[in-house]
Amino acid sequence: MAAPLELSCWGGGWGLPSVHSESLVVMAYAKFSGAPLKVNVIDNTWRGSRGDVPILTTEDNIVSQPAKILSFLRKQKYNADYELSAKQGADTLAYIALLEEKLLPAVLHTFWVESDNYFTVTKPWFASRIPFPLSLILPGRMSKGARNRILVTRGQPPFYHLREVEAQIYRDAKECLNLLSNRLGTSQFFFGDTPSTLDAYVFGFLAPLYKVRFPKVQLQEHLKQLSNLCRFCDDILNSYFRLSLGDG
Amino acid sequence: MWSGSWRVRFQEDKVSSFRKSKTAEPWPENATLYQQLKGEQILLSDNAASLAVQAFLQMCNLPVKVVCRANAEYMSPSGKVPFIHVGNQVVSELGPIVQFVKAKGHSLSDGLDEVQKAEMKAYMELVNNMLLTAELYLQWCDEATVGEITHARYGSPYPWPLNHILAYQKQWEVKRKMKAIGWGNKTLDQVLEDVDQCCQALSQRLGTQPYFFNKQPTELDALVFGHLYTILTTQLTNDELSEKVKNYSNLLAFCRRIEQHYFEDRGKGSSSIRSS
């Protein structure tokens, strides 16, 4: 496939190629499947907000959202899952659903809703990469979006306030991390020796949580106790992203 | 509490799948499950949830009486149906009900190891994430279904104009949720595609086994049964949704098997599960 594939996504920091979970999922999948992606990191020269990031651009297509991008890459014959059995493919879907339902709310909360984290780390980082005057608006919008998502999906009665929801979502996230750790065990990747879609998703969700330095770190502390998950993230960073970390 | 002959009859039944700890608290005879009115009001997604809980309780051999009330949604502590009233406690939704029943000493998943438990939870999330969301989408975001079925059914117990107001309010709530999780821009075809993917995953996981974790059913089997059976037996504006499920013969056999084991052979006591 000679058509150039360009990915627009948020940039990296703290040793990661990207601090944005969804961008990281796509980047990891591209590395695992051997897709030649040209990564365009969003910086101050980026014009306007075109909707969700990451966005994959080819000659005739624009694809957004990680699930659709991965599907598109698979159709272009960049498939990281061809060695998986049917049952493993089914397990992949199930575990991704688990990640999105149980882990994602807490990750969103840690990055975008927890005030200490948001105002000292997340907002300045994103604002510095968005051209003025959007830098005043976009981070706030992303934060509201995250808060809204958490409340709409998890803020049902008897929880009426964000505080009450918080306790529950962190509990769920810790349980999810434990389940992932149990499932991974001592293997290098989730399905044998080669990484697949599930590894990309887990890496995308866990790596920012693991590496970004936050003031309020309860979920990060829990993750650091699960040494096999930390080893999993470090292995992928070292094997697949080492060469591109020149400028951090 | 438990009359001798009644208990013996249940024990002598086909292989029971629940394990009871020695310190199990007695399950009261007047345990009740509340849902909306079966014939005129209840919608696909709520019916599926209710059936899943009924199946789970049947699998645990815990009798429950099904009572239909128009305001079941408002009676529920979490706003969702079904909910059960056991003793002096009220618990709603399958997840908390499973926990509650476990605290009383009954569990279907005690025999699973840690990896299997993780898998079971993951597949339950898959069903909630894809099947339930697709059902909600179809009911509330597909204009044809909304106009012909949902609005009329949802508001049916209430007088005008309350019936319209409540239906619009609910529709707004569901649309808001769809937008928050990224389903707002999906077309019906994409949603049906997702349903197909989900059914394919379930079918591949089930394989040729009788239940998802081989010989004994678990709460995952109850949840999958609740959704698939309801999809197969509910009349919608067209058959596209049920056709997706019918493509997988092992899923059809699975539904039939659970229906036979846990509903047809138990005789009367709880109301029939056939939807109108």
From TrEMBL, chain A:
Location in the cell reads: Mitochondrion outer membrane
Q: Name one GO biological process term.
A: mitochondrion organization
Q: Which SUPFAM superfamilies match?
A: GST C-terminal domain-like
Metaxin glutathione S-transferase domain mapped to chain residues:
173-236
- Looking at the record's lineage, which domain of life comes first? Eukaryota
Membrane-crossing residues?
A: none
Keyword Mitochondrion appears in the UniProt entry: yes
Domain (Mitochondrial outer membrane transport complex Sam37/metaxin N-terminal) spans 23-142
Please verify whether the record's keywords include Protein transport.
Answer: yes
GO cellular component assignments: SAM complex
Q: What is its main location?
A: mitochondrion
Q: Name one Pfam family in it.
A: Tom37
The name under which this protein is listed is: Metaxin
Q: Could you tell me which species this protein originates from?
A: Suricata suricatta
Lineage from the top down?
A: Eukaryota, Metazoa, Chordata, Craniata, Vertebrata
From TrEMBL, chain B:
Similarity section: Belongs to the metaxin family.
User: Any idea where the Metaxin glutathione S-transferase domain is?
Assistant: 196-258
Highest taxon in the source lineage? Eukaryota
Tell me the protein's name: Metaxin-2
**Quaternary structure note:** Interacts with MTX1/metaxin-1. Associates with the mitochondrial contact site and cristae organizing system (MICOS) complex, composed of at least MICOS10/MIC10, CHCHD3/MIC19, CHCHD6/MIC25, APOOL/MIC27, IMMT/MIC60, APOO/MIC23/MIC26 and QIL1/MIC13. This complex was also known under the names MINOS or MitOS complex. The MICOS complex associates with mitochondrial outer membrane proteins SAMM50, MTX1 and MTX2 (together described as components of the mitochondrial outer membrane sorting assembly machinery (SAM) complex) and DNAJC11, mitochondrial inner membrane protein TMEM11 and with HSPA9.
- UniProt KW Membrane keyword: yes
Domain Mitochondrial outer membrane transport complex Sam37/metaxin N-terminal intervals: 50-171
Q: What is an annotated GO biological process for this record, any one?
A: mitochondrion organization
Keywords per UniProt:
Acetylation, Membrane, Mitochondrion, Mitochondrion outer membrane, Protein transport, Transport
Q: Which GO terms describe its cellular component?
A: SAM complex
User: In this record, what's one Pfam family?
Assistant: Tom37
Function statement:
Involved in transport of proteins into the mitochondrion.
Q: Does the keyword Nucleotidyltransferase apply?
A: no
Which spans of this chain does the record mark as coiled coil?
none
User: What species does this protein belong to?
Assistant: Suricata suricatta (Meerkat)
Q: Where in the cell is it found?
A: Mitochondrion outer membrane
CDD domains (UniProt xref): GST_C_Metaxin2, GST_N_Metaxin2
Q: What is its main location?
A: mitochondrion
